[in-house]
Design a protein that fits this description.
The protein is an alpha/beta fold. The protein has a single domain, classed as TIM Barrel (Alpha-Beta Barrel), CATH 3.20.20. Helix content is 40%, strand content 16%. The protein contains ten helices and ten strands. An eight-stranded parallel β-sheet has the order 3-4-5-6-7-8-9-10. The protein has a two-stranded antiparallel ribbon with strand order 1-2. Helix 1 crosses helix 2, helix 2 packs parallel to helix 3 and helix 7 packs across helix 8. The chain starts with a strand and ends in a 16-residue tail after the last helix. The structure holds NADP nicotinamide-adenine-dinucleotide phosphate.
Length: 272
């Protein structure tokens, strides 16, 4: 299945769909997930320093013998590695762990108040050196992004935030669209915590699709990048089979009404 690509503000392209890797802790699990993802057309893999699996992903990539240029690899600088020098050092460690000489996308994991500016300057340096093709942020609210206009030479290409049917963040989507920042929707299945909504089930039966496929397609219709996680081959396959149908306007409206500000991960809205 061919996955659409989205153009970033730096001219690079990002696949609209990928595999999240949070909580996948062993090489064996990563290997199974990676291989079945590749078999089903995934090319984007979302890791992070804190996930502790960069090295396993690097090994799975190497063993697959896939041409590195066919993959889109993301990792994130964790909050304990914030600060200019520490970020640069930890970035080099991530490259070593992943056994690669560049990343497609490197993100600041969270808007750490006193250190986010300095750490962004490190990412700009990494981008300029060519060791990351694109740079971005994660868990940034409109306020954190507006603040960047005062110090950033490079506007983030991506803002990775929690976004799903039950946490729709329409203002943030509008802001990012206007400012040419692509939103990557993390926990697009609400971390598996809201799998029994009646409306989602009804829409799923109408299209002959599954509950999770409706949750994911809803985000694709909004033009977002979507990165569900699973370690089960049959679910990895199911989740990506959403590019052969469209939700009509009426169903998009029905689903839009399900927003209930449900956060399943960290809440950056109160971070000064
Ligand atoms: N930047 C950040 O701060 C941040 C925060 C959170 C997440 N993320 C990224 O976003 C990715 C996705 O988010 P997430 O892992 O929190 O949660 P998610 O993708 O919303 O949901 C994952 C959960 O749903 C289950 N699942 C997956 N496909 C399913 C299916 N077809 N049917 C039924 N259950 C299914 C998974 O179980 P199984 O694995 O057992 O199948 C798992 O329990 C992460 O892995 C990570 O890469 C980033």
């Amino acid at each position: 299945m061919k996955i659409p690509e989205i153009k970033l503000n730096d001219g690079n392209k990002i696949p609209q769909f990928g595999l999240g890797l949070w909580k996948i802790k062993t090489y064996e699990e990563i290997k199974v997930a990676f291989d079945s993802a590749i078999e089903n057309g995934y090319t984007l893999f979302d890791s992070a320093q804190i996930y502790g699996n960069e090295e396993f992903l690097g090994r799975a990539i190497k063993e697959s013998k896939i041409d590195r240029s066919k993959l889109f690899i993301t990792t994130k600088i964790f909050i304990s590695n914030f600060g200019y020098k520490k970020a640069l050092k930890s970035f080099d460690e991530s490259l070593r762990n992943l056994d690669t000489d560049y990343l497609d996308l490197i993100l600041l994991h969270f808007p750490v108040t006193l250190l986010r500016k300095k750490t962004w300057l490190a990412l700009e340096e990494i981008k300029e050196s060519g060791r990351a093709k694109s740079i971005g942020v994660s868990n940034y609210t409109i306020r954190h992004l507006e603040e960047m206009k005062k110090y950033a030479k490079i506007i983030p290409a991506v803002n990775q935030v929690e976004l799903h049917v039950f946490l729709q963040q329409p203002e943030l989507i509008k802001y990012c669209l206007e400012n040419n920042i692509i939103i990557e929707a993390y926990s697009p299945l609400a971390h598996g915590k809201a799998m029994n909504d009646k409306t989602v089930s009804e829409v799923a039966s109408k299209y002959g699709k599954t509950y999770t496929q409706i949750m994911l397609r809803f985000l694709v219709e909004k033009g977002l990048v979507v990165i569900p996680k699973s370690t089960h081959p049959e679910r990895i396959k199911e989740n990506i089979e959403i590019f052969d149908f469209k939700l009509d306007e009426e169903d998009m409206k029905k689903l839009s009404k399900l927003d209930k500000n449900l956060r399943t991960c960290w809440d950056p809205t109160l971070v000064p």
